[in-house]
Amino acid sequence: MRHLQVPGRARVGKWIGQNIYWKRRHDGSENGEEEVPNESVLVIEDEENLCEVLRYNLEREGYRVEACLDGAEGLDSARSSHPDLIILDVMLPGLDGFEICRILRRESDVPILFLTARGEEIDKVVGLELGADDYVTKPFSVREVVARVKGMLRRSQSTARDGSPDAAHRVIRAGDLELDLDRHSVTLRGEPLSLKPREFDLLAMLASNQGRALTRDQILERVWGHDYYGDTRTVDVHIRWLREKIQHYPQSPQRIITIRGVGYRFEAWPPSSGQ
Ligand code: CA
């Protein structure tokens, strides 16, 4: 594997200081310091200079950064290192960004920020329902990328912690489906169900709005956040995945009902389960 080396700083292995590196984060006051584990970002980008600039600036913000210049190596790194976020270029040698994203989305919900050229690439990122969380177009300002990374990590942490924006140690029961927002677990007819974090957030949001029609925009904003740059088709894709998991017959939706021209409505199933 070829990992970028930035001169002038001691580096052991591919992670700075390995996994025990902690950053002291200042919140503006001397007394208000808190120890926080710094998060890891994997940069998959074949332009070496760009890669280095991103690494330098992200490290300055306290992130652990791993960089790969090749698509296939990047995929390997993503699988072995489990980064908290991936910055992914579209055009890459080995395996392109679209393919990497497609593969990763089957395996994890790691936030992915696409780096795209203008034009056709953006259309694909937005239109192919790849499950990218955000994208920036080249040329971009590094400050913009760092800001996006911060926002995405903050959102992914808060959803992982809270389950849904208004979750507070609650259990949602909807027919034979039960969501424990505190434990981030779901059971269907008493059997545990394995959902990805985003699928859980989506289901929690839908189930806490039983019987209410929600537009794709509302769903996008509540589950992905108001500064999400993607497309409402992302919602459709996640609904499809969710239906495959929570419904016996995905082709005849019982719990998540499509409302043509509007969006979706969640109904408890079976309808009269004595809630
Ligand atoms: Ca490239």
The distinct bound ligands, ions and cofactors come out as: calcium ion
Low-pLDDT regions: 1-35, 163-169
- The string of secondary-structure elements, in order, is EEEHEHEHEHEHEEEEHEHHEE
Q: How is the biggest beta sheet arranged?
A: 5 strands, parallel
**N-to-C span:** 55 Å
Shape: elongated
Spatial strand arrangement across the major sheet: 4-3-5-6-7
Percentage of β-strand residues: 15-25%
Helix percent reads: 25-40%
The tally of beta strands, per DSSP, is 14
Mean pLDDT score: 77
- The radius of gyration is 20 Å
How many helices in DSSP terms? 8
Structural class call reads alpha/beta
Structure description:
The chain is built from eight helices and 14 strands. It is an alpha/beta fold and 275 residues long. The strands form four sheets. The chain has a five-stranded parallel sheet, sandwiched between helices. A four-stranded antiparallel sheet has the order 8-9-10-11, covered by helices on one side. Strands 12-14-13 form a three-stranded antiparallel sheet. Strand 3, helix 1 (48-60) and strand 4 (64-68) form a beta-alpha-beta unit. Helix 1 (48-60) crosses helix 5 (142-162), helix 6 (197-207) packs across helix 7 (216-224) and helix 6 (197-207) crosses helix 8. It is elongated, with a radius of gyration of 20 Å. The site of calcium ion has 5 residues, from loops.
What descriptors fit this protein?
alpha/beta, 36% helix, 8 helices, five-stranded parallel beta sheet, 275 residues, binds calcium ion
Task: Summarize it.
The protein is α/β, with parallel strands linked by helices and 275 residues long.
